[in-house]
Amino acid sequence: MKTVIRLAATAITAFSFHAVSAAGPLKVYILAGQSNMQGSAHQHTFSALRDDPATAGLLDVVLNREGDPVVCEDAWITYRTGGRDGETVRQGKVAIGYGFDDQRIGPEYGFGIFIDHAIDEPVLIIKTAWGGKSLAVDFRPPGAGTYQPSANEIERGNVPEVESVGHYYREMIRFVQSTLRDTEGLKKLVPTYDASQGYELAGFVWFQGWNDMCNRHHIDQYTDNMIHFIRDVRQQFDTPTLPFIVGILGVYGTDPDSRKFDKGLPVSEFRKAQFAAVQQYDQYVAARFRGNVIAVDSGPFYDLQLSDIYWKRRLTGNWKQRVKQGQMTPETFQKECDRYGFGDGELTAQEQSIWDRCASNAEYHYLGSGKTFIRFGKALAEAMLQLEKQ
């Protein structure tokens, strides 16, 4: 069975809280992808949840009585990532700090909180995410075969090195396997882990896409690559029906073509390629690998009001610089502001307040919005729990 899920952005499901328990095997969830799986949302943006009556209740879930971000009672995480400082592994209870830095979150925070609330077994999230990576090259699964460069890559001498193709797929698999094979390490990380009960590989969440979306050659092969990826992961871990979620790129919302900005990016076309992988998956894999694959759209959780402010800041800032350098006249500046509805080009006091409280990064990182990442993480948890019931 395959399903496309577009969970309502404002829906808040009641989860039952449970006492810490070691009942049953350790439930292991793998989260993987690129920078938006890493996560850019700074904790200071959480308060934006209170601005909307439909989401205000979530603030009571993610903040404790003292007003600090909660730390999960029975959900842990081990997180491998990389950046300018090289490869790092962070681990502990699910909390703030498993995003870009120790003040930020990705989807794992909302996912971990709501999975922890919903089940009695101890939970371990194994997260691997590296920024700026493609499925076509960096995470290329074995089943997709040898990477065939485009004519443009050949002409420019920009063909990926053979050893780089699939490198992060292999690193992801290696990190998951080494974590699960290390019984003593699991006991140290998860104090309630009972080796006699063992663990259950309970689900996989994939959230990635920006780098493939920016490359026409990669878009053309994304559907096939994603189908191979899902099947190869299941085969690698010998779990043919492992519940699998494809997080759909949702920058600019569910209808990117209706936006006034960044019209040159083929976001809608790329989203179709992602959805197609889920819709077509069962047609191209052996019977034992079929089913339990769904798509969860991040588009409903993208903050379009915040995006408008982002683009007003970005465009008017660029135009002001051009005026200062004599490359644009003040009259043309105002004409451009009128064209986009930017008034005199200055942020209003209300816009500045919204930006300061709600944003902490750029549009391709979902504006670093805690409101977005928490709700999307919750949606992923709801979808995973739905899959597990099937």
TrEMBL record:
Residues 26-252 form the Sialate O-acetylesterase domain. Residues 1-22 form the signal peptide. Gene3D superfamilies: SGNH hydrolase (3.40.50.1110). InterPro entries: Carb_Esterase_6 (IPR052940), SASA (IPR005181), SGNH_hydro_sf (IPR036514). Keywords: Hydrolase, Signal. GO terms for molecular function: hydrolase activity, acting on ester bonds. It comes from the Bacteria. This is Sialate O-acetylesterase domain-containing protein. It comes from Stieleria neptunia.
